[in-house]
Amino acid sequence: MIAHAMRQARHCRPLLTILAALSVLCLIWLIYPPYSSFSWPDVSPEPSPQRIAKVSMLYGRPNRLYERALQSHTRHAQRWGYPMHILREDISVGFWNKPSYLLSLVIGELAKPPGKRVEWLMWVDADSIILNGAIPADLFIPPSDLKDIHLVATKDHNGLNTGIMFLHIHPWTINMLVESLAYPLYLPNETLGRSMDQESMARVLNQTTGGPKGEGYVDGLVYVPRTWINTYEWTHAYEGKRGNLLVHFPGLEEHRWSHMSKWLDIVEITPTRWEVPLEETQYLNETTAFWTRVRTAMETMALMEKKIDAMPNKTDSQRGEIERIDVAVRALRKALHEEADNVGMVQERLDYLSMFKQ
Protein backbone atom coordinates (compact mmCIF):
# COMPACT_ATOMS: atom_id res chain seq x y z
CA MET A 1 0.00 0.00 0.00
CA ILE A 2 2.78 2.42 0.97
CA ALA A 3 4.77 1.50 -2.14
CA HIS A 4 1.71 2.11 -4.32
CA ALA A 5 1.17 5.51 -2.72
CA MET A 6 4.79 6.42 -3.31
CA ARG A 7 4.58 5.40 -6.98
CA GLN A 8 1.40 7.44 -7.36
CA ALA A 9 3.05 10.45 -5.77
CA ARG A 10 6.04 10.16 -8.13
CA HIS A 11 3.65 9.95 -11.09
CA CYS A 12 1.81 13.12 -10.06
CA ARG A 13 4.93 15.10 -9.16
CA PRO A 14 5.84 16.20 -12.73
CA LEU A 15 2.33 17.51 -13.35
CA LEU A 16 2.26 19.31 -10.01
CA THR A 17 5.66 20.85 -10.73
CA ILE A 18 4.52 22.04 -14.15
CA LEU A 19 1.23 23.31 -12.81
CA ALA A 20 2.95 25.07 -9.94
CA ALA A 21 5.16 26.92 -12.41
CA LEU A 22 2.19 27.69 -14.61
CA SER A 23 0.20 28.92 -11.63
CA VAL A 24 2.90 31.51 -11.04
CA LEU A 25 2.59 32.56 -14.68
CA CYS A 26 -1.17 32.66 -14.28
CA LEU A 27 -0.90 34.90 -11.23
CA ILE A 28 1.43 37.22 -13.11
CA TRP A 29 -1.03 37.37 -16.00
CA LEU A 30 -3.93 38.05 -13.63
CA ILE A 31 -2.10 40.66 -11.55
CA TYR A 32 -0.62 42.35 -14.61
CA PRO A 33 -3.20 41.89 -17.38
CA PRO A 34 -1.49 41.75 -20.75
CA TYR A 35 -3.95 44.15 -22.33
CA SER A 36 -3.43 46.92 -19.81
CA SER A 37 -0.45 46.89 -17.46
CA PHE A 38 1.94 45.26 -19.91
CA SER A 39 2.73 46.98 -23.17
CA TRP A 40 2.42 44.01 -25.49
CA PRO A 41 3.71 44.41 -29.02
CA ASP A 42 1.14 44.48 -31.78
CA VAL A 43 0.23 40.83 -32.28
CA SER A 44 -1.46 41.39 -35.60
CA PRO A 45 1.38 40.06 -37.72
CA GLU A 46 2.61 41.50 -40.93
CA PRO A 47 1.96 39.28 -43.93
CA SER A 48 3.94 36.08 -43.40
CA PRO A 49 4.59 33.13 -45.71
CA GLN A 50 1.80 31.12 -44.08
CA ARG A 51 -0.98 31.91 -41.65
CA ILE A 52 -1.14 28.38 -40.21
CA ALA A 53 1.11 25.70 -38.74
CA LYS A 54 -0.21 22.20 -38.06
CA VAL A 55 0.48 20.56 -34.69
CA SER A 56 0.11 17.07 -33.23
CA MET A 57 1.88 14.66 -30.90
CA LEU A 58 2.91 11.01 -30.94
CA TYR A 59 5.32 9.42 -28.49
CA GLY A 60 5.75 6.26 -26.46
CA ARG A 61 5.11 2.79 -27.84
CA PRO A 62 5.35 2.72 -31.66
CA ASN A 63 1.99 2.69 -33.41
CA ARG A 64 2.08 2.25 -37.16
CA LEU A 65 -1.51 3.39 -37.69
CA TYR A 66 -0.97 6.67 -35.87
CA GLU A 67 2.26 7.21 -37.81
CA ARG A 68 0.45 6.68 -41.10
CA ALA A 69 -2.34 9.02 -40.00
CA LEU A 70 0.17 11.74 -39.19
CA GLN A 71 1.82 11.18 -42.56
CA SER A 72 -1.49 12.16 -44.16
CA HIS A 73 -1.34 15.44 -42.23
CA THR A 74 2.29 15.93 -43.19
CA ARG A 75 1.41 15.49 -46.87
CA HIS A 76 -1.41 18.02 -46.45
CA ALA A 77 0.94 20.47 -44.72
CA GLN A 78 3.57 20.09 -47.45
CA ARG A 79 0.96 20.58 -50.16
CA TRP A 80 -0.13 23.92 -48.72
CA GLY A 81 3.22 25.04 -47.31
CA TYR A 82 2.25 24.76 -43.64
CA PRO A 83 4.94 24.07 -41.04
CA MET A 84 4.26 20.79 -39.20
CA HIS A 85 5.11 20.33 -35.52
CA ILE A 86 4.87 16.89 -33.88
CA LEU A 87 5.71 16.38 -30.21
CA ARG A 88 7.78 13.21 -29.97
CA GLU A 89 8.70 13.25 -26.28
CA ASP A 90 6.63 13.07 -23.11
CA ILE A 91 6.99 16.57 -21.62
CA SER A 92 4.22 16.41 -19.03
CA VAL A 93 1.81 13.75 -17.75
CA GLY A 94 -0.63 12.02 -20.09
CA PHE A 95 -3.35 14.30 -21.41
CA TRP A 96 -1.53 17.42 -20.22
CA ASN A 97 1.10 17.07 -22.94
CA LYS A 98 -1.26 18.63 -25.49
CA PRO A 99 -1.92 21.99 -23.77
CA SER A 100 1.67 22.13 -22.50
CA TYR A 101 3.05 21.71 -26.02
CA LEU A 102 0.57 24.17 -27.50
CA LEU A 103 1.49 26.73 -24.85
CA SER A 104 5.18 26.37 -25.68
CA LEU A 105 4.49 26.86 -29.40
CA VAL A 106 2.30 29.93 -28.88
CA ILE A 107 4.96 31.54 -26.68
CA GLY A 108 7.64 30.60 -29.19
CA GLU A 109 5.74 32.24 -32.04
CA LEU A 110 5.03 35.40 -30.05
CA ALA A 111 8.75 35.66 -29.30
CA LYS A 112 9.44 36.05 -33.03
CA PRO A 113 9.21 39.34 -34.93
CA PRO A 114 5.63 39.83 -36.18
CA GLY A 115 6.55 39.24 -39.80
CA LYS A 116 8.11 35.87 -38.98
CA ARG A 117 5.19 34.39 -37.05
CA VAL A 118 2.42 32.14 -38.16
CA GLU A 119 -0.97 33.45 -37.06
CA TRP A 120 -2.71 30.22 -36.11
CA LEU A 121 -1.95 26.70 -34.93
CA MET A 122 -4.14 23.88 -36.22
CA TRP A 123 -4.13 21.07 -33.69
CA VAL A 124 -4.91 17.60 -35.09
CA ASP A 125 -5.16 14.45 -32.98
CA ALA A 126 -3.09 11.51 -34.21
CA ASP A 127 -6.27 9.48 -34.74
CA SER A 128 -7.42 11.73 -37.59
CA ILE A 129 -6.69 11.23 -41.28
CA ILE A 130 -6.75 13.74 -44.13
CA LEU A 131 -9.13 12.49 -46.83
CA ASN A 132 -9.23 15.50 -49.14
CA GLY A 133 -5.88 17.23 -49.36
CA ALA A 134 -7.29 19.75 -51.84
CA ILE A 135 -8.92 21.66 -48.97
CA PRO A 136 -6.69 24.36 -47.40
CA ALA A 137 -6.97 24.90 -43.66
CA ASP A 138 -7.08 28.67 -44.18
CA LEU A 139 -10.79 28.46 -44.97
CA PHE A 140 -11.64 27.70 -41.36
CA ILE A 141 -9.86 30.55 -39.58
CA PRO A 142 -11.50 33.97 -39.34
CA PRO A 143 -10.61 36.73 -41.79
CA SER A 144 -7.92 39.06 -40.48
CA ASP A 145 -10.40 41.83 -39.63
CA LEU A 146 -12.12 39.62 -37.02
CA LYS A 147 -9.34 40.25 -34.53
CA ASP A 148 -11.21 39.24 -31.36
CA ILE A 149 -11.60 35.56 -32.29
CA HIS A 150 -8.80 33.45 -30.85
CA LEU A 151 -10.12 29.89 -30.76
CA VAL A 152 -12.00 28.09 -33.54
CA ALA A 153 -13.33 24.75 -32.34
CA THR A 154 -16.15 22.24 -32.65
CA LYS A 155 -18.49 20.53 -30.23
CA ASP A 156 -20.45 17.31 -30.15
CA HIS A 157 -23.04 15.76 -27.82
CA ASN A 158 -20.46 15.88 -25.02
CA GLY A 159 -19.59 19.54 -25.57
CA LEU A 160 -16.20 20.88 -26.63
CA ASN A 161 -14.05 18.49 -28.65
CA THR A 162 -10.40 19.50 -28.88
CA GLY A 163 -9.38 16.80 -31.35
CA ILE A 164 -9.25 19.35 -34.16
CA MET A 165 -9.05 23.06 -33.34
CA PHE A 166 -7.39 26.31 -34.34
CA LEU A 167 -5.60 28.50 -31.78
CA HIS A 168 -4.63 32.10 -32.47
CA ILE A 169 -1.06 33.21 -31.78
CA HIS A 170 -2.04 35.83 -29.23
CA PRO A 171 -1.70 36.61 -25.49
CA TRP A 172 -5.37 35.58 -25.07
CA THR A 173 -4.37 32.03 -25.99
CA ILE A 174 -1.53 32.03 -23.47
CA ASN A 175 -3.93 33.09 -20.73
CA MET A 176 -6.47 30.44 -21.68
CA LEU A 177 -3.94 27.61 -21.86
CA VAL A 178 -2.29 28.63 -18.58
CA GLU A 179 -5.65 28.66 -16.79
CA SER A 180 -6.59 25.31 -18.36
CA LEU A 181 -3.35 23.74 -17.16
CA ALA A 182 -3.69 25.29 -13.71
CA TYR A 183 -7.36 24.33 -13.28
CA PRO A 184 -6.79 20.95 -11.53
CA LEU A 185 -4.22 22.53 -9.23
CA TYR A 186 -6.57 25.25 -8.03
CA LEU A 187 -9.60 22.95 -7.93
CA PRO A 188 -8.13 19.54 -7.03
CA ASN A 189 -11.43 18.11 -5.78
CA GLU A 190 -13.23 18.54 -9.10
CA THR A 191 -13.56 15.46 -11.29
CA LEU A 192 -12.48 16.08 -14.87
CA GLY A 193 -13.24 12.64 -16.28
CA ARG A 194 -11.17 10.72 -18.78
CA SER A 195 -10.22 13.54 -21.18
CA MET A 196 -8.95 15.78 -18.43
CA ASP A 197 -7.29 18.43 -20.58
CA GLN A 198 -10.37 18.78 -22.78
CA GLU A 199 -12.74 19.08 -19.83
CA SER A 200 -10.43 21.52 -18.09
CA MET A 201 -10.35 23.74 -21.18
CA ALA A 202 -14.13 23.51 -21.57
CA ARG A 203 -14.68 24.66 -17.99
CA VAL A 204 -12.24 27.54 -18.35
CA LEU A 205 -13.96 28.64 -21.56
CA ASN A 206 -17.35 28.54 -19.83
CA GLN A 207 -16.25 30.81 -16.98
CA THR A 208 -17.65 34.32 -16.81
CA THR A 209 -14.72 35.57 -14.73
CA GLY A 210 -10.97 35.47 -15.22
CA GLY A 211 -9.32 35.92 -18.55
CA PRO A 212 -7.57 39.03 -19.85
CA LYS A 213 -10.49 41.36 -19.11
CA GLY A 214 -11.98 39.58 -16.11
CA GLU A 215 -15.01 38.49 -18.16
CA GLY A 216 -13.91 34.98 -19.09
CA TYR A 217 -12.97 33.69 -22.52
CA VAL A 218 -16.26 33.14 -24.29
CA ASP A 219 -15.91 36.28 -26.41
CA GLY A 220 -12.85 34.81 -28.11
CA LEU A 221 -14.38 31.43 -28.98
CA VAL A 222 -16.29 30.49 -32.13
CA TYR A 223 -17.70 27.05 -32.88
CA VAL A 224 -17.81 26.09 -36.55
CA PRO A 225 -19.98 23.26 -37.93
CA ARG A 226 -18.20 20.13 -36.74
CA THR A 227 -18.39 18.17 -39.97
CA TRP A 228 -16.32 20.83 -41.73
CA ILE A 229 -13.11 20.04 -39.85
CA ASN A 230 -13.86 17.24 -37.36
CA THR A 231 -15.94 14.64 -39.19
CA TYR A 232 -16.44 11.47 -37.15
CA GLU A 233 -16.28 7.84 -38.05
CA TRP A 234 -18.91 5.95 -36.05
CA THR A 235 -18.90 2.19 -35.55
CA HIS A 236 -21.55 1.85 -38.26
CA ALA A 237 -20.51 4.50 -40.81
CA TYR A 238 -18.65 7.70 -41.70
CA GLU A 239 -20.84 10.74 -41.05
CA GLY A 240 -19.28 12.75 -43.87
CA LYS A 241 -19.29 12.51 -47.63
CA ARG A 242 -16.80 12.48 -50.47
CA GLY A 243 -14.90 15.77 -50.45
CA ASN A 244 -14.80 16.21 -46.67
CA LEU A 245 -11.45 17.30 -45.26
CA LEU A 246 -10.78 14.45 -42.83
CA VAL A 247 -12.03 11.61 -40.68
CA HIS A 248 -11.61 11.46 -36.89
CA PHE A 249 -12.08 8.38 -34.69
CA PRO A 250 -12.98 9.53 -31.15
CA GLY A 251 -14.68 7.11 -28.79
CA LEU A 252 -14.20 3.98 -30.90
CA GLU A 253 -11.79 2.43 -28.39
CA GLU A 254 -10.46 -0.89 -29.74
CA HIS A 255 -12.68 -0.64 -32.84
CA ARG A 256 -10.54 2.34 -33.87
CA TRP A 257 -7.77 0.20 -35.35
CA SER A 258 -9.82 -1.60 -37.99
CA HIS A 259 -11.54 1.64 -39.01
CA MET A 260 -8.26 3.54 -39.22
CA SER A 261 -6.65 0.75 -41.23
CA LYS A 262 -9.51 0.81 -43.73
CA TRP A 263 -9.31 4.57 -44.29
CA LEU A 264 -5.52 4.63 -44.43
CA ASP A 265 -5.57 2.00 -47.16
CA ILE A 266 -8.05 4.12 -49.11
CA VAL A 267 -6.03 7.35 -48.95
CA GLU A 268 -2.69 5.63 -49.58
CA ILE A 269 -3.69 3.19 -52.32
CA THR A 270 -6.37 5.27 -54.07
CA PRO A 271 -5.63 8.86 -52.97
CA THR A 272 -7.98 10.47 -55.51
CA ARG A 273 -10.96 8.39 -54.44
CA TRP A 274 -12.04 10.91 -51.79
CA GLU A 275 -10.28 14.00 -53.10
CA VAL A 276 -12.56 16.63 -54.62
CA PRO A 277 -11.37 20.03 -55.92
CA LEU A 278 -12.21 22.86 -53.53
CA GLU A 279 -14.53 24.59 -55.99
CA GLU A 280 -16.61 21.42 -56.29
CA THR A 281 -17.20 21.15 -52.54
CA GLN A 282 -19.50 23.12 -50.26
CA TYR A 283 -16.58 24.53 -48.28
CA LEU A 284 -15.87 27.77 -50.12
CA ASN A 285 -19.46 29.02 -50.14
CA GLU A 286 -20.28 27.83 -46.63
CA THR A 287 -17.16 29.20 -44.93
CA THR A 288 -17.48 32.54 -46.72
CA ALA A 289 -21.12 32.81 -45.65
CA PHE A 290 -20.24 31.75 -42.11
CA TRP A 291 -17.57 34.39 -41.53
CA THR A 292 -19.70 37.04 -43.24
CA ARG A 293 -22.54 36.18 -40.85
CA VAL A 294 -20.21 36.38 -37.84
CA ARG A 295 -18.88 39.76 -38.98
CA THR A 296 -22.36 41.13 -39.63
CA ALA A 297 -23.56 39.92 -36.23
CA MET A 298 -20.66 41.63 -34.45
CA GLU A 299 -21.16 44.86 -36.38
CA THR A 300 -24.92 44.85 -35.76
CA MET A 301 -24.51 44.30 -32.02
CA ALA A 302 -22.01 47.16 -31.82
CA LEU A 303 -24.32 49.42 -33.84
CA MET A 304 -27.33 48.70 -31.65
CA GLU A 305 -25.35 49.29 -28.46
CA LYS A 306 -24.34 52.69 -29.85
CA LYS A 307 -27.98 53.39 -30.66
CA ILE A 308 -28.92 52.74 -27.04
CA ASP A 309 -26.15 55.04 -25.79
CA ALA A 310 -27.37 57.79 -28.13
CA MET A 311 -30.74 58.06 -26.35
CA PRO A 312 -29.95 60.46 -23.47
CA ASN A 313 -33.47 61.55 -22.47
CA LYS A 314 -35.34 58.30 -22.67
CA THR A 315 -39.12 58.34 -22.89
CA ASP A 316 -41.25 55.42 -21.73
CA SER A 317 -41.52 54.31 -25.35
CA GLN A 318 -37.76 54.50 -25.82
CA ARG A 319 -37.13 52.58 -22.61
CA GLY A 320 -39.34 49.78 -23.90
CA GLU A 321 -37.47 49.72 -27.20
CA ILE A 322 -34.12 49.75 -25.40
CA GLU A 323 -35.16 46.77 -23.32
CA ARG A 324 -36.18 44.84 -26.44
CA ILE A 325 -32.93 45.75 -28.19
CA ASP A 326 -30.90 44.72 -25.15
CA VAL A 327 -32.65 41.34 -24.98
CA ALA A 328 -32.07 40.82 -28.71
CA VAL A 329 -28.38 41.76 -28.45
CA ARG A 330 -27.83 39.37 -25.55
CA ALA A 331 -29.64 36.57 -27.39
CA LEU A 332 -27.52 37.06 -30.51
CA ARG A 333 -24.31 37.29 -28.50
CA LYS A 334 -25.16 34.07 -26.66
CA ALA A 335 -25.88 32.28 -29.95
CA LEU A 336 -22.69 33.60 -31.52
CA HIS A 337 -20.50 32.52 -28.62
CA GLU A 338 -22.12 29.21 -27.76
CA GLU A 339 -23.80 27.98 -30.95
CA ALA A 340 -22.30 29.72 -33.96
CA ASP A 341 -22.25 26.29 -35.59
CA ASN A 342 -26.06 26.44 -35.57
CA VAL A 343 -26.16 28.80 -38.54
CA GLY A 344 -29.95 28.88 -38.69
CA MET A 345 -30.26 30.07 -35.09
CA VAL A 346 -27.60 32.75 -35.51
CA GLN A 347 -29.21 34.05 -38.71
CA GLU A 348 -32.66 34.11 -37.10
CA ARG A 349 -31.44 36.14 -34.13
CA LEU A 350 -29.43 38.43 -36.38
CA ASP A 351 -32.50 39.10 -38.53
CA TYR A 352 -34.55 39.92 -35.45
CA LEU A 353 -31.97 42.36 -34.08
CA SER A 354 -31.59 43.97 -37.50
CA MET A 355 -35.26 45.01 -37.43
CA PHE A 356 -34.36 47.59 -34.77
CA LYS A 357 -31.97 49.38 -37.13
CA GLN A 358 -34.83 51.32 -38.67
TrEMBL record:
Family: Belongs to the glycosyltransferase 34 family.
Name of the protein in question: Galactosyl transferase GMA12/MNN10 family protein
GO cellular component: Golgi membrane
Gene Ontology biological-process annotations: protein N-linked glycosylation
Keyword Transferase (UniProt): yes
PANTHER family: ALPHA-1,6-MANNOSYLTRANSFERASE MNN11-RELATED (PTHR31306), GLYCOSYLTRANSFERASE FAMILY 34 PROTEIN (PTHR31306:SF8)
Pfam families for the chain: Glyco_transf_34 (PF05637)
Protein origin, superkingdom: Eukaryota
MF terms in GO: glycosyltransferase activity
Keyword tags: Glycosyltransferase, Transferase
